[in-house]
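Appendix B: complex inputs.
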Amino acid sequence: MQKKYLMTPGPTSVPTDVLLAQARDMIHHRAPAYTEVLREITARLKKVLGTEGDVVIFGSSGTGAMESSVVNLFSPGDKVVVISVGYFGDRYAAIAEEFGLQVIKLSYPRGSPADPLDLEKTLESHPETKGVFITHLDTSTGVENDLEAFGRLTNPRNVALIVDSISGLGSSPLYLDAWNLDVVVSGSQKAFMTPPGIAFAGISSRAWNMVERSRLPKFYWSYQKSKDAYNKPIPQNPFTPPVSLLVAFNEALKMVEKEGLENMWSRHRLLAEATRAGLRAMGLKLFATGGWGNGVTSVLPPEGVDGGKIVRMMREEFGITIAGGQGDLKGKIFRIGHLGYVDRLDIILTLAALEMTLARLGVEVELGSGVRGTQEVFLKAEG
Amino acid sequence: MQKKYLMTPGPTSVPTDVLLAQARDMIHHRAPAYTEVLREITARLKKVLGTEGDVVIFGSSGTGAMESSVVNLFSPGDKVVVISVGYFGDRYAAIAEEFGLQVIKLSYPRGSPADPLDLEKTLESHPETKGVFITHLDTSTGVENDLEAFGRLTNPRNVALIVDSISGLGSSPLYLDAWNLDVVVSGSQKAFMTPPGIAFAGISSRAWNMVERSRLPKFYWSYQKSKDAYNKPIPQNPFTPPVSLLVAFNEALKMVEKEGLENMWSRHRLLAEATRAGLRAMGLKLFATGGWGNGVTSVLPPEGVDGGKIVRMMREEFGITIAGGQGDLKGKIFRIGHLGYVDRLDIILTLAALEMTLARLGVEVELGSGVRGTQEVFLKAEG
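Resulting structure:
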């Protein structure tokens, strides 16, 4: 008998109530019962995104919603800046290039956040820039960018700020309207503890103005088609939506509402701090040098140990799925997710298993040291 | 207490085992447990599509997979023929036009199938045609096109034949390899009795050759990215797939395997014949004039009765969701789906409820006549 724990930066663990909501009898996506679900989800997502503007929903992964922001706002040849602090920033650049945008890429060493000063200089020397793409939380390293600071640069210049907050949203504060963000894309399978398959985007009025002028072809991803369908007498999606996932997502959003968004952010911050304190107390080195977000922690394996081996032993011996490094970082780091349906004891059991894993791999580690490190943070937070 | 019945052409009713398979603990999409699911689904889909070629899987509705066939095979300005017998043929034309293809549209009156002779003439006068798009079963009317006959025209001319079999696959025979089809797109939520959110495409070697030359931009829909991810040492999807839906889809495909594909086709044919016999026995007129497929039956409401009213009363009074007309046919027809997880008694109860609905609406109808019409077909089939 071995219980399973999903401690990756997504898909994340799903509460039983949300899992079971998927199993309700299928309803038709043009019938009144579904419309009620769509209305509720849309209202809840507006709160989560901090916007009074429109939200569109897609049956897709987060990458689909990233693509949607490119094809809905821009035209071939448009100049854009892509800020990359990791794997997912690189992905945004790849999408923008694929669709013929002229991309200026501001790349940062993995493990560091982006510096707003660099964007300011770039926008000064490229005043024709139409949009800036940025990752909120890049799960490849756990680093988070300061969206508010970037919004202060783009907004007065009337440049669209497009945010991949697939992993950031729900784990850290984000205010689409107040921070002058223009498109924020996210998904169901991270902080929102729902299975993958739903993506969504919040859209500012500046972004809608750009949609009108965009000349890139679009059909499935069309924001306008989504808006038109939602504005029918019976609100609906333009194409058959993933009904069972949406019913489950609505349940998860009810749980978010009950916890309260601010409490959810605090919980994620506490879990992140405890994880990092525990890892340091075990003598491990964290990968990022600053700008940590709250969703995932990247860790350097002890000297001479392959990160992939740790991931494998954690899964096989203890039933805990953590993540290895992506791309260039494969084998060089491992990542512990603390995103979504996670509480204090999940962190404790993960670090306890990690201590045992390292001991098995011949690393000198004081058993209980990591656990104690997290306990101290948790007890202090309650005091 | 009112039980619910989903008798639409999709999403269709989902068996409890498939519903509950969604509720299993979430697994990570790069971990071995998921790989096994992906391998099994891929193998099963190849059988269902009648192909030894590649199958790619998307988290999206069927429309997403339709878009994928346009952006993966073609380049702006390419000449294509779109054969339309209804709402979904029109959709393929709209997608192809949106992406800059030069579209010759062969439109047929709603309720009639396409005539291969027309395509033959068109291909003779437009020898530069690169592809032909066709709907297998157009659920807007229930009419099915003879794919094999069209494949005999396109194959010797080395023209790609691209098939929307979202609703046809599983309800009628289709053999991708033997009929020389090049791309067949379909989805989870029709004959395959799984919730919506998964689309897939079978791809011929001719189609792969076209993928290499295509200049339309693509990222989420890229067939090449799917193939590359599947061919990694651990087969996977390029982007986070809808894991819980895929686990459920695999269960449904196991049920298909158990029933046997040929038996599944026969069951759908029998249910379609019984539905039509029953409707005629009630004195109703069917909408299509020929070329019926097996997935859905379109019906003309009795003189002076709005189709929408019938749909509403069936749902509100009897808990049965059937479908109204789409686009131009709104209010003018109603549609009964018999697709997926449907057996003889579902047809009988639906016609019984329809008899009562019509009686309530003041239509002169002999109670039991429709039911008797279906019973006769069912009894004869067993004899």
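The longest helix of chain B spans residues 261-281.
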